[in-house]
Batch of 4 targets.
Target 1
Amino acid sequence: QSDPYVVRLPPYRRVSGVVLQSGGEPVANALVRIGIQPVEYRDSTAPVGGVVASDEQGHFTLVVPSQVGCTLIAFNGEYTSTAVTIDAGDEAPASVELRMLDGATSEIRGRVFLASGGPAEGAQISSRSGHVQRLSEDASVLRGPSTALADADGAFQLTGLQDETYVLTAWDASSTGRRHPSAKVIAAAGATDVELRLPAWGSVVATAQQANGLPVANVSVMLTLTSTSAAQPKNRSTWMKNSEGKVRFDGVVVGTYEARLSANGYKFVTFPLVIKSAGEVVDTGVHVLEAKD
């Protein structure tokens, strides 16, 4: 019989390496971290991730997961390094080499537009999820992040790039729409006319009640996209911790969905949902959840 007070930590390993300048000189006090944290470890108690500083010889040791792969990246306050992928497995690689991109001088310029056609002031051209990433035959080597914010005219400028090809994605600057990137655009360093367009999105409101009319607490809703949209992930979910049985789901890209409303101890219900235009708030009304046997 298992001990309920014993915490099972996900397996992990220690990876060592060195941070070097583009010319091969060691970089001291560079901050090394996991560039993309695996979902399985984000809320775990395992000592995975964090940030470590390289020593005077540029050496570092970082704890990384064993069961899934991850990427390592270094920063020195001014430049970022190439990102190196560590594959899943119990064995740590012999050594990891992270080279700083301190010789990058190219740039990419362009504009970000709202779905309505107006400028997307404050939109972020991000290095995460919509990263500016190197297109390489070796998928394990990615160029480091380069980010920018669009000005009042939607114009942006990405600097410090290598002379190669990149994938650009813009993100809505608002807190509710930030999860929704534009479609990815491929551009070469030196481009001056890149256009990124943010998707249109609205909101969904739903209320969950018991058969006796009392509210169902801690309601969650999952949306499954049934129409085609390149900018929207197929499945999205949210969870509202409240005692009123109400849930509001902001930032839903225009499209057709199947919605699933559920709560602990109750059978879920599904219903169709359509967001037709930007800014639309669709109130799906009251949904009765039947208690599980």
Note: The chain has no helices and 24 strands.
Target 2
Amino acid sequence: LLKYGSNLPLLASFQTAGDLAVVGGVVFSTGGIESPLSFLYSLVIIATAVLLPRAASFLTASVASISYGLLIDLEYYNVISPVYFFLKSRPTYEGGYVFYLIFVNIMSFYAVAYLSSLLSHRLRLVKEQLALTSSNFYELQAFHQNVVQNMGNGLLTADLDGRVTSMNPAAESITGVSLADGLNQYCHHLLPIPQFSEFFEKKRFSFLPHYIEGECRRKDGKTIFIRIRMSRLMDNQNQDQMKGFICVFEDLTEIRAMEGKIAQSEQLAALGRFSAGLAHEIRNPLASLSGSIQ
């Protein structure tokens, strides 16, 4: 049915109706009034609470009450004669006993419907909230992963010994080392800056966050100017315990070259202003001499 049916609530409704009919037949076949299997109605109600909305549980309890009450009444008035596996305990039943039996079972049906529907409703709410929380968590995780993978600055994490545990693509590009080759390597070997190596050698972990600038030579022989910002990487289970370092760094080589060009331009401009002033100072006396000669 689940394979070929597209309307699952309708299939569940048909299943509930079939279960009620089967349970009624079982109660009839096992003694009617004396049947010990009337509790099977409660199992059908619980299954309905799991499969269908809360209102369906009370509807099933009502149908079970009508089915059971009708079966007992018909037997009491000798309209039907159930199948008995054992001899009847009494030839006839008093009306008060029959009413009491029907009343107790009906109350139990509705009590089971109320409790099972309440628990099932709360379970659905918890599942929806959990699904929403999981969706938000995965979206946030994907967002953070996207930010880390596409940020322009290099980012690497290291353990307390300084061994690299992760790198983003920008870090691979700046260091010239791939992730596969960089993992478990000392981060101050990937970025060989004297202050960076000194930080790990002297274990100056209490000075975090810490800034380091300097030139480093990559493995391909290219020299670049790097600025590094180091901070603590805390343990997820214990936020008071540090388990490593976060290193965010950027290549300032082009900026330094631009700053050098700007400084050179300023020097040339100052020289030009000095030359213009000097020429002006020389031209004034020459103009006076030229006028006197004329």
Note: The first helix runs from residue 8 to 29.
Target 3
Amino acid sequence: TVVNHRLWIGANGRLLYSNDYGKTWNESIIKGGYGFRRPEFINNTHGWAGTGTGLFKTTDGGQSWENVTSWADIKVDKYEAPRKIHFCNAKTGWVLGFFAIYYTADGGETWQKVFDYGGWSFDFIDDKEAWMVGDNMLAHMTDGKNWIKISPLPNYKSDPMLLPDIPYFTAVDFIDHNHGWIVGMNPLIIYTPNSGQDWYKQSVPEELVTPQTTCLTGVFFFNSTTGWAVGHDGYILRTTSGDDTTGEKFHITTGLFDFESPFGLLVLLGGGLIITGLTVYLIIVWHKKQQHPS
């Protein structure tokens, strides 16, 4: 999340922020919190951050955090982990959990389960439309209220033999109502130019397709052509023709680099992406291969 040039990230369980475009980082300490994932801020003051089991909120720009105790009232088999957070304003928001999607209209005082399936990630196009991915599941919301499970799964186009028998989705990014990308295991990148009516598989470098398959965990596009995907072991893939449906090869980079760009500052950290400023930086947190995406 970026708020007036301050970058907020969750990295290796810690909540960090930078005031100088990522040159230096400071840790925000939250009493009773650990295992933080990427935080969500809507303005200079109001933000939320999730842990493996809890949810925290700040109203003073991260100087102090309070435990959203109502989250503990959510009853599931063991615990509910807030994996992704999205707020439209200080009152209205959604949290994607491991078991379901939850909605609040009062700033987190109370929560309503609005979808009986959890997942790894969701992406909001606006306050009413969003997409969610989880393992071999895809869901779509178009009215700001009701999530619809996509069944059957997308009818992939191009190179079907390279797809897993059951798709394993980990992240999704839409730049508008029509154009979106999903990444996942195998590694998998699929693209839709028409709001999910058709999905086209896009190719990846051959060195990523191994017996111990790389899992892509994050994806972000500036526009319909230029985008990045990141994955385990520090892999970064980049394309300048992301709307190509003929098997575009992504360009692979494994390391830290920066280059001038008119689009702004892009930060990728363990699958998270942030934009601001005038230069593009790619920051990688290196991971061993895991059974599940982080």
Note: The longest strand covers residues 6-11.
Target 4
Amino acid sequence: EPREHPPRRGHGVGGLGLPRPPCRTAPHGPPPGRIPTDRDLRDPWRSSQPHPARERAMSALFDTKLDRVVGSKKLAKIGIETVRDLMYTVPYRIVQPGELTPLASLRTGDEVTVHAAIADVHSRQKAAGGGFVMNVEITDGVSTMALVFFPRSRGHQAGLLKSFRVGEEGLFSGKVGEYRGERQLAHPTYHMLREGEDMEGALAEYRRATPIYPRKGSVQTWDVHRAARTVVQMLQVDDVPDLVPESVRSAEHIPGAVEVFRGLHTPVTEADWRRAIQALRVEEAFVLQTELLRR
């Protein structure tokens, strides 16, 4: 049974010392005063108390309960209760979809994105271990390929069956594997094209980098990402407390607070995400030094 540990100053989300409510996890992380490294970002679920300087600077939007903004209390189950909590929830890596590739030219091991139509869908229950196996055959009009999914429940299976309808087109992204001599994509990400949807626009949006957040309990990475995208689209400069002076941001070549959160949660490329991470490190170091000088 997990024990409740008292929060410690300086140990925040992603090891950045960023504020979030205490959660049921061991309070470990980098010592106060050290700018966190990439290694610290691998364990984003750490407890902390809000930093006093951040508390004074919080805007009304940042203090707003998240369910009022996104219409769901699901993230509150893992301690993400306010807009501030969500914006300082750090994705631990970025997935960049591969280049758009014809099916005939796919090679095992490649990270690819393919544009194809659904040719066939069939699903069966596993002989042992529970769950299901779903095979979706796709075609680009010349070649065919299998997409393989392993839904664990009937609800998940039903959702996939509803998504894949014979004749409809979509974008499918993943790593090319091989099974019994046949190429396949196992558990690919996908975007089904809606009727009349512009292909170029859909592809540009689909090929954006996707932040990956830690899974915790019933909350999946896409639950966090969906909420973060909604909030980021709403953010204005006046909504976000910018704790780092412009002179420091210019000297360190880092963007303003709104752009930092956009780069963190809705990056176009991995480079955008890394710039946002570096900006948070600078902010953490600046806030810590400011507090030390006040004492």
Note: Residues 1-36, 38-58 have pLDDT under 50 and may be disordered.
